[in-house]
Amino acid sequence: MSSSMLFNVTMIAYMVSTCIFFAFLASRSKGVGLAGTYAALFGFVVQTAAIGLRWKESYDQGHGHAPLSNLFESVVFFSWTIILIFLFIDFKYRYRAIGFFVVPFALFGMAWAQLSLDSNIEPLVPALQSNWLVYHVITCFLGYAAFAVACGISIMYLIREQIEQEGGNAQAGGLLSMFPSIKVLDDLNYKAIMIGFPLLTLGIVTGAAWANYAWGTYWSWDPKETWSLIVWFVYAAFLHARITRGWVGRRAAILSVIGFAATIFCYLGVNLLLSGLHSYGK
Amino acid sequence: MTTNKRGFAQQLWDFFCSLRLTIFLLIGLALTSIIGTVIQQGPQREYLATLSETKIRLYSALGFFDMYHSWWFILLLYLLTLNLICCSIKRLPRVWKIVSEPVLVMDDTFERSLSSVRDLKLRGSKGELKEKMVSFLKAEFAEPVITEREGEYHLFAQKNPWCRLGVYVVHLSIIIIFIGALIGSFFGYKAYVNIPEGGGVSQVQGRGGKTIDLGYEVRCEKFSVAFYDTGAPKEFKSILSIVENGKPVAGLQKVPVIVNEPLTYKGITFYQSSYGQSDEGVKYHLTVRDRKGGAPVKLDARQGERVALPGGAFLSVMEATQNVTPFMKGFDGPGAQVEFTPAGGNPQPFVILSEKYESFNAQHGGDLVITFDGMDQKFFTGLQVAKDPGVLVVWLGCFLMVIGTCMAFFMSHKRVWARVSDKGVTMGGSASKNPTGFEIVFDELVEKINKA
Ligand code: HEM
Predict the structure, then answer these.
(1) CATH number corresponding to B102-160+412-451
(2) Strand, helix or coil at B63?
(3) Taking 60 as the threshold, does the pLDDT of residue A172 lie above it?
């Protein structure tokens, strides 16, 4: 058994989970919703094993390191963290419909990694040979994942609000009826960002600590650093917007979607389009 | 006139206290920060050549080439700080009052402002009920404060009052980080230095070209670079020693410094950053053997030097490496790009490798088989040098920021009041965060005491 096979199983589990969640929206049966969550949980367990196995495989090759060192590994880890945060929110608040808007992010990540990224296990270049890599990557990606969940919830919010405004009570009997209410969605959006914001803060701090330890500057306005700060500013604006009148609901949802777009740009756009110190993705 | 003036001051104060300004500044910083990630900072000549004249003039006028230090970006940061301070000054006293002078008595007006209020199903005398409530709250929630007023007992208990200060801890931490950054920019420096193997320096070049005295000497005993089988670099290592007043400093001799493991002495830290070949001349070692037999001849050559070979041919080594793997997949060991000129012939360029690849080497060289045995190469190591006395202050700020966000988000100030009279007990409660979550906690409390 290889980690690659297990990653395929993971991908299929997330695909099945997405389909079940869709069936849940259509059928409105509680049991179906629970099945969707269990499919995601199964995928998560397999993925955890696969990541562990890949870690071991790197030791078998003689240069063991945590599987967080190239684009393939980071995309896989990102989708793992998305499901982790999703399951946390799912088990805590039990609004199953969210799965249909969040699990696809993880599915997309796994599909992209498995189908088109280079999955070779490479030894670490000198710049990455540090424990800070592990702390930094884990905190950043947990933060990103919470923002992904918040983005999925915000999209639900925007859809539901749109349909309600069109007086879509007829439709409310359909797919929409499994959506949490507007108020709950707004609150969940805030809760997800409340999880993500301290993690992103910790991610930026560990990144700065590592940069200071390895290069002697905790902050050098490298594009990746700058973009993480941009993301941080956007979510800080989101948090303060909530305290101000008139900024809850629709505007908050839009800000959350923008925040996640900035997050994705920080993660991928910077590597693929700009240049800098962070070497993921070439 | 005076009222007008006060009006203006008041307006200014309100402006700096406003959260709209905060949102505007945060979004403004986010948007403007993008510029510096798209336009190269401290631009290189090649980059400038791709821009039109007008663009260059415009960008320099706006400070886009060093955007994060431009006056308007710094101004935005100062405005943010000012906004932060004003807002905190305005709101902190109110919050402090909630923490330090809690409302001990739930009267009718206050009761109406609470979201969770319940009459308990307890019967008994006032004194008994009071004792019961006190021991119950103490066991299940927190130790209550008892106030007696107008023949009624008022109990007040709270959890995590200080987590209300979390927000202010976060805001303070931002100011502390700014202070740390300012200390670093006034009293610290970043510099760079190249040291050849066997050499030493006691001065470094700061950014902006200033020469800085270290106060001691840093020597590079040796530099080495190692590669993986794939040809990817594995390790860059400098062996450094510190010499002060002509004497070696104990404990800081022959210290290996690699990427991610710097060396610090007297507040100055040296980071492995780059390397290169020292100009001091490399010596290449070659072996030449006649195909028809005879003893092999060992030769030394310098870069580009024309060396006479047996039989009237000449050879120059153009460049060489200790490890060819990055350039030739499937080969390892040293290799050299040479130019071979047979007696009376034209120069022929080709590559020679170590004696392990004899048949490869035998493909060229006419009557001779030339083998590359390696080289004595001198490297220089490139070190990043940094001194930053503000860095501890920055870490203190970061620490407070993480603690503060956790306090602000994951903890809730929960309060419970109970009014005990002969008619029975009324309990009320509120929380600073997560009202739905608190309602559940409150209902559980009510249920428990009703059953008890
Ligand atoms: C101009 C700068 C800022 C001002 C004037 C400001 C002001 C405020 C105010 C008035 C509150 C509400 C406090 C309360 O509920 O009593 C608040 C909350 C908060 N601020 Fe700021 N702030 C600023 C910048 C920042 C920044 C840069 C951060 C980044 C971490 C931040 C993090 C927070 C957090 C985490 C909260 C708590 C939000 C919540 O409970 O939902 N603030 N801020």
Answers:
(1) 3.30.310
(2) coil
(3) no
Residue B83 CB partners (closer than 8 Å, separation 6+)? B16, B17, B18, B21, B22, B25
DSSP alpha helices (H): ranges in B63-199? 71-100, 108-113, 126-140, 166-187
CB-CB under 8 Å, A194 with B262: no
Q: Hey, what are B56's tokens?
A: 């260059």
Which residues of B fall within a CB distance of 8 Å from A198? 402, 405-406, 409-410
Atom of ligand 1 nearest to the CA of A233: 27
Q: Which of A123, A194, A233 sits opposite B26 (nearest CB)?
A: A233
Please list every protein residue whose CB sits less than 6 Å from any atom of ligand 1.
A 236, 239-240, 242-243; B 19, 22, 25, 80, 83-84, 87, 91, 95, 167, 170-171, 174, 405, 408
Q: Do A219 and B181 touch (CB under 8 A)?
A: yes
pLDDT tens digits, B198-252: 888 888 888 777 888 888 999 888 888 888 877 778 888 888 899 988 888 888 8
Give the pLDDT of residue A143.
96
Reported ipTM: the value is 0.86
Q: Do A270 and B34 touch (CB under 8 A)?
A: no
- Taking alpha carbons only, the member of B110, B198, B210, B174 closest to residue B376 is B198
Q: Which of A242, A198, A255 is nearest to B19 (CA)?
A: A242
CA atoms within 13 A on the CB side of B418: 31
CA of A125 vs chain B CAs: smallest distance (Å):
6
Report which of A67, A280, A121, A51 is spatially closest to residue B230, judged by C-alpha positions. Answer: A121
Say how far apart CA B75 and CA B63 lie, in whole Å. Answer: 13
Q: What are the backbone dihedrals phi and psi of residue A244, each rounded to the nearest 5 degrees, phi first?
A: -85, 145
What are the Cα distances from residue A153, in Å, to A101, A110, A159, A185, B303?
Answer: 7, 21, 10, 6, 66
DSSP B206: E
Domain ranges for chain B: 2-93, 102-160+412-451, 189-279+380-387, 283-375
- pLDDT score of A177 more than 80: no
Cβ partners under 8 Å of residue B191, min gap 6? B204, B205, B206, B207, B212, B384, B385, B386
pLDDT less than 70: residues of chain B:
1-5, 279-281
Specify the pTM. 0.81
Instruction: Report CB contact under 8 Å: A216, B262.
Output: yes
Measured between alpha carbons, how far is B19 from A142 in angstroms, rounded to an integer? 29
- Both tokens of A20, joined, read 């079940």
Give the chain B residue whose CA is nearest to the CA of A214: B260
